[in-house]
Amino acid sequence: MTEAPLIDPFQRAINYLRVSVTDRCDFRCVYCMSENMTFLPKKELLTLEELDRMCSTFIDLGVEKLRITGGEPLVRRDIMTFFNAMARHLERGALKELTVTTNGSQLARFAGDLHAAGMRRINVSLDTLDEAKFAEVTRWGRLPQVLRGIDAAQQAGLRVKINVVAIKGFNEDELFSLAEWCAARDMDLTFIEVMPMGDIGNENRLGQYWPLKDLRARLAERYTLTDLAERTGGPARYVRLEETGQKIGFITPLTHNFCESCNRVRLTCTGALYMCLGQEDMADLRAPLRSFPETDAPLKEAIRAAISLKPKGHDFDYSRQRPDGQMSRHMSHTGG
Ligand code: SAM
Ligand code: SF4
User: Fold this and answer.
1) What is the assigned CATH class of domain 16-334?
2) Domains of the chain by residue range
3) How far apart are CA 151 and CA 307, in angstroms?
4) Using 50, 70 and 90 to split pLDDT, how confident is the model at 312?
5) pTM of the shown model
6) Which atom number of ligand 1 is nearest to the Cα of residue 20?
C-alpha cells in the first residue's frame, strides 16, 4: 500500500527527519550545555530497536532524508547497529540520504563503518582551529582528536561539511583562517548564529551573539561574494567566494526567518516529536510505539496528527536586547 505523503497545514511536504539518538555528550560546549548537565535516565531513551522502528515508520510515510544527531550520536553505545539497520532503506531506495552531525571526537573510530553503511556526507562541528580556544569552548574536548577524526572521515570517502557557531569575540579573528582551511581541504563551511536554547549556566547568550550579517560583511572585505539561489530545503543560505570558488553557508535563525520552506521535524531520544525547533509544542510518539508492539498503525496516526499541527515558524528574536523566544530545552535534547 502506498501511503499519502506528510503535508503540513502550510502545504510544506515533510520529508526530512532529524533524530537525536542520545542527550549525552563527551563535550560541554559553552553555548550548548552547562558544565553539570543532568542526563535522562536510560529507560527514558528509545532503544536502538525502537529508533529503528520509529525511523522506518517515518520512511514509510515519505521521509527521504535522515540526519542523526544528539547529544553526540557517536557516543551512544552500539550506534553502528542502528546505522547498519538504516542501510537497508538506502539500499532499497526509500531513503535517499543518511547523515550525521557530530563533534568529530569518535570519527577516527567510526568513519569507515559509516561509509560502509551507505553514508556519504557528514557535518562536523568545529568552532576554532586553536587548541587552547577549542578546549575553552568545548570545555572537555581535544582538538587533535577531532582533527584526526576529520582526516579519517575524508580518507574513508565521506564528504565533510564544517559547522562553525559564530561567537562574538571568540572566533571572529578566525573567519579567514577557517575559510582557507576548509577551502584547502575541499570541505564546505557553514556558519551558525547562536540560538537561545536551554540553560547554559553562567554564560551570557547575548554576549555570544555575533550576527551573521556582520560576519558576512567582514568576509566581503576580502572576497567577492555571490549569492547562490541554491536551497536545500533547510535554513542555510549560500554564497560563493569568487576568488576561491568555495561555497559558504549561513544559518541565521535570528536575523533571517527561514521557516517558509521548512521541510523537517525533529525526534528526540525519548520519542518526542518537535514540529519546530523554536516552539514548545511536541507530540509523544513513544507511547503509541510502545503500547502497540504488533502494529505501526497507531504510530502512523500519531505522526500524521502531529504534522497537522506543525506551526508556521519560530519566534526567536534578540532585537529587544534580550533573548526572546528563549527555549527551555537544550539543543542537545532536540538535536541541532
Ligand atoms: N554533538 C554534535 C555536534 O556538536 O555536532 C551534534 C549535536 S549539536 C547539538 C548540533 C549542532 O548544534 C552543533 O553544530 C552545535 O554547534 C549546534 N549548537 C548547539 N547549541 C547551539 C546554540 N545554542 N546555538 C546555535 N547552535 C548550537
Ligand atoms: Fe556536545 Fe554537540 Fe552540544 Fe557540543 S554542541 S556540547 S558537542 S552536543
Assistant:
1) alpha beta
2) 16-334
3) 39
4) confident
5) 0.92
6) 7
* Contact (Cβ atoms closer than 8 angstroms) between residue 57 and residue 296: yes
SS3 321: coil
pLDDT in tens, 95-153: 999 999 999 999 999 999 999 999 999 999 999 999 999 999 999 999 999 999 999 99
Ligand 2 binding pocket (C-beta < 6 A) is 25, 27-29, 32-33, 70-72, 103, 125, 332
325 sits in the region (left: phi over 0; alpha: psi -120 to 50; else beta) called left
The DSSP bridge partners found for residue 237 are 250
Enumerate residues 6+ apart whose C-beta is below 8 A from 217: none
58 C-beta neighbours (distance < 10 Å), count: 26
CA distance 266 to 331: 11
Beta bridge partners of 305: none
Q: Which residues line ligand 1 (CB under 6 A)?
A: 25, 31-32, 69-70, 72, 101-103, 125, 163, 165, 192, 194-195, 197, 331-332, 336
Q: Which residue has the cell 500500500?
A: 1
Q: Which helix (H) or strand (E) holds 246?
A: strand 246-251
Cell of 31: 553555548
Residue 331 C-alpha to ligand 1 middle, in angstroms?
A: 6
Pick the ligand that lies closest to the CA of residue 29: 2
Ligand nearest to C-alpha 128: 1
Q: Are 271 and 285 in contact (CB under 8 A)?
A: yes
Backbone torsions φ then ψ of 58, nearest 5 degrees:
-60, -40
What interhelical angle do 131-138 and 143-156 show, nearest 10? Answer: 100
Name which of 82-86, 299-303, 312-316 the model is least confident about.
312-316
Quote the ligand 2 centre to 6 CA distance (angstroms): 30
Q: Around Cβ 327, how many Cβ atoms within 10 Å?
A: 21
